[in-house]
Write the structure tokens for this entry.
Amino acid sequence: MPPDSPSLPLASFLRRQFKRHWHGALRKPGDTFNPLLFYLMVVTLFPLGLGPDPEVLATLAPGLLWVVALLATLTVAGKLFASDYADGSLEQLMLAPHPLYLAAMAEILVHWVMAGLTLALASPLFAVMLKLPSQAIPSLVFSLLLGTWSLSLIAGIGAALTVGLRRGGALLSLIILPFMVPVLIFGASAVREAANGYDAASWLALLGAYALMATVLTPVAIAAGLRISVDN
Amino acid sequence: MATETLLRATDVGIERGYRRLLTGVAFEVGPGQIWQLSGANGSGKTSLLRAVAGLAHAGVTGSIERTDSCLFQGHANALKPLLSATENLSWHPSGGVDCSDAAVAQALAAVGLAGLEGLPVGNLSAGQQRRVGLARLWLAKSALWLLDEPFTALDTQGIGMLATRLDQHLEQGGGVVFSSHQPMALSRSVAVLALDDYAA
């Protein structure tokens, strides 16, 4: 009788899971940087559509920058877990000795680095394109850092629930949009306050609280959603 | 559960999509035993294997006891097409599969893929991808193997290779449950569970 399988240390489990998705993301840069490209395209179009008046652009910029960030996240939300479901990796993860939500968190972390972190880091460029007052740029970057993390986690719930459906796209948006609205309000408000010369700290604190709450609560929902999707 | 038994299914019934597929399925897998689930398409082979693995709970009745030391290989190979064979095999979420570089290289050589380790798996043929997936059996330390249609897409040589590996595993006291339409020739007798007999 072969020896019983030794348990895999949690750290190696997470490292393997992260590495697998990280390498996967780097191999298809087209897919990975889609949100960034989307953001760039839409932000380029606004001055063409609204006219080049710096005053108008600066007034609208906080809201525009945040709405586009939310839509950019939405465009790639359906990709989360999709390949894991299709290729059977999800089944292996469900049978693993470690909790499914940890595996899901590793995947979401990679997803966020590609779709959220890069967006936040590139956002000063977009802010300049929309004539956002320069004193609001730190608030924009910081609000996007916190906000996109929440958005990625919320997207995870919807993706987990709809991954087994053939056309889950519309349903996915319907499920997650209500949870994303507070992020949009807090984020856009933070940038607007800063643009008007006020202190944005309270809005950023709300965003931070939302991100913390999402970090604690969504993994449970994501794991439950994935179980339902596989168990059918 | 007694240490000798790797898997014990008692009075298992399976319902899928409001349709009862199986009732009263009972079998027991001990060390060195191999069971084949046979039956027509749609007879519930995959459903039963998934229930036994613990992947499906909805619509499953009866009792299933199995060892934790278990490897499940489904229809899908759990391979990422953009990653190489080596990268794919160096990932597994359980400790029951040896993912060290040396072991992976050895396993890939054993399934006849030496020289193709670095290619993205998506560039390999269906049969070669199947071989990469099955290479996990050469890395597995688990006692009980649950294999869903392991012979699909394999050529004659591949089938022979897999049969040899199954024999080896049984020799070491492991147990195997696999689903297949075709009768299999192994050096040990294969117990056949004809699911058509349990159709509800």
